[in-house]
Write a structure and sequence with these properties.
This protein has 156 residues and is of the alpha+beta class. The protein has four helices and six strands; from the N terminus they run ββααβββαβα.
């Protein structure tokens, strides 16, 4: 568990489900994405499974969950070692500016360090300048360009 001022960061727990879901839905709305009940169940199932590679940390500010971070380890072929991808990071609007995102990034950094270190990478939309101002103080901005290609599920 990491503590940064009044912000406490810890691994997600089963009793966090309702508030995590509210925050995850708000995160989807922020990025103009609707998460279906099937997606919510699927992601929550991952977070509750020790076997799944995605881990979740939640931040509490004044005893209320105000943010989350989803991180997973991945192999780094440039170093033949571990690296990490911070899939999702979200802070409730009312809690922004209170150090929640900074505390979450510190917690996932501590977690990655304890699990072998490596590079942590994440993306944000080009127009999310508020987040970028924070990220620019915490990490090095990459020169890499991200592409994506939605691949349909094959039938065999």
């Amino acid at each position: 568990m990491s503590e940064r001022g009044e912000v406490v960061v810890r691994p997600v727990a089963p009793e966090d489900r309702a508030r995590w879901e509210q925050l995850f839905l708000a995160y989807g709305n922020f990025y103009q994405t609707t998460f279906t009940p099937k997606i919510l169940e699927g992601v929550w199932g991952w977070l509750m499974s020790e076997e799944h590679p995605v881990r979740c940390f939640v931040a509490a500010h004044n005893d209320t969950l105000t943010g989350f971070a989803h991180i997973r380890q991945q192999p780094d072929t440039f170093r033949a070692g571990p690296s990490w991808f911070l899939d999702d990071l979200y802070t409730d609007e009312e809690a922004r500016g209170h150090g929640v995102a900074t505390a979450l990034i510190a917690a996932v950094t501590d977690y990655a360090s304890a699990k072998g270190g490596g590079t942590i990478r994440w993306i944000t939309e080009a127009n999310n300048t508020t987040a970028q101002r924070l990220y620019d103080t915490l990490a090095e901005r990459s020169t890499w360009v991200v592409y994506q290609n939605e691949v349909p599920k094959g039938e065999r």
